[in-house]
Amino acid sequence: MFLDLDKKPKDKIAVIDDSGEQLTYGDLCDFSEEFKKHLPKRSLIFLMAENCNGSLLGYLGSLSNGIVPLILSAKTEESLFAALYNLYQPEYLWAPDGMVEKLSYEKVFSSHGYSLLKTGNAPVAMHPDLALLLPTSGSTGSPKLVRHSLHNIEANADNVRRMFQMDGTEKAMAILPMHYTMGLSVIASHLLAGATLLLSGRSLLDRGFWTMLKEATSFTGVPYSYELLMKMRFTRMDLPNLQIITQGGGKLTDEMFKALAQYAHDKGKKFIATYGQSECTARMAYLPAELALEKTCSIGIAEPGGQLSIVDENGNETFEGEATGEMVYRGENVTMGYANSREDLLKGDENHGVMHTGDLAHRDADGCYFIVGRLKRFLKIFGLRIGLDEVENLIKSEYKVDCYCKGNDEKLIVLVTKPELVDVLPAFIEEKTHLFHKNIEIQFVDAILRNEAGKVINQ
């Protein structure tokens, strides 16, 4: 069974969600046996995900029985859902009961607040190794999907289990969305270890979130999560059970990284920064906790079972020593490739365990990696190379403000949420980058819009 769920103690609590309902590992196995009675093996199913037991059961029941889910947020906009539905034509949907009337398909099974709906679409031809589909970068509307094999998912879960030295006694706070690759990584690694998930869809501003967090031994967040937590003075709170705080899904500011590292050091906890991509089933690298104070904003080293390298601008690949260039990852968690259409679901493994990440990285003399930008997140204005990620980090560190950089080969455009910085930033950026101020445009916006995973959208 998926993640060896059937090898765990049947009476061990596997998950508790916001409703307070507890499910044991035996319950997970029993549901998987029931689920497979209601739909054929190798069916394509759209899973409309929420962070709750019903959603989790649909995911586990699918992967335990050779059913291939495309996981989408239950809050996906209707137009985006319609585009994906028309493109991939799933045979079934697993959706919250509250969506059933609107979807108006034949209901064949219900459990834990979710219903299995039969669409009437013809069976989909899929590669025998295909096990899971996820939108790229946590998006909820792109037709471009990442194709995962069962081996990719379980290999990454085992890598993460070893990385955090899980022994099954953990109670992991799982707040990242299930349709987001990091959210699934938290779920899979802890269930493989035989731990308990505290599965929550609550806002970080909700009192119920804090009640649950007080029981947790670990918490995983993205930079946006920690921005909210820091505003609520998270580092001053009494959380005696919390042993590990970990971060992924983007780069923290130097200031926030240092604050979390110092907090963990002072309180006898571990702060472990991680790095990953959907294309590698989430995690790929981590910074050991003992290096957090020393290696600010480093992603550290490859996770157990993986390997990192640098390819410089001349195409030379190295695995040790100081170097800067595109970071390459090798491991069994590298996914099969992308799908842009229904026909692509027949494709096999196109990556063969190697992923050119598209991230520019520096490897220091100690072998620790630092992300310095994206290959495509650069502008070249009158011959001057401008790293958009680097400019964002400079502004955030200096002015403690949210911002987003974009532009073209004539102008750098910076969106900023403090109107008083509109006149200040051109001189600051010119000083730091030597870009002439007439090629810099600052725009005030009320907010930098982000999706549930903290990724900037529609800017």
Summarize the structure.
By secondary structure, the chain is α/β, with parallel strands linked by helices.
Helix share bin:
25-40%
- The proportion of residues in beta strands is 25-35%
The domain tally reads 3
Q: End-to-end span in angstroms?
A: 43 Å
Structure description:
The protein is of the alpha/beta class. The protein folds into three domains: 2-124, Rossmann fold; 150-374, Rossmann fold; 378-444, GMP Synthetase, Chain A, domain 3, CATH 3.30.300. The protein is 25% helix and 30% strand. It contains eleven helices and 27 strands. Strands 2-1-11-10-12-13-14-15-16 form a nine-stranded mixed sheet. It has a five-stranded mixed sheet with strand order 4-3-5-7-6, with helices on one face. Helix 1 crosses helix 2 (53-63). It starts with 12 loop residues before the first strand and ends in a 15-residue tail after the last strand.
Write the layout of secondary structure elements.
Layout: E1 13-17, E2 22-24, H1 25-35, E3 44-49, H2 53-63, E4 68-73, H3 78-88, E5 92-96, H4 100-103, E6 106-111, E7 114-118, E8 130-135, E9 145-149, H5 150-163, E10 171-174, H6 181-193, E11 196-199, H7 207-213, E12 218-221, H8 223-231, E13 244-247, H9 254-267, E14 270-277, E15 282-286, E16 301-302, E17 306-311, E18 317-318, E19 323-331, E20 337-339, E21 354-363, E22 369-374, E23 378-381, E24 384-387, H10 388-399, E25 403-407, E26 412-416, H11 425-433, E27 440-444
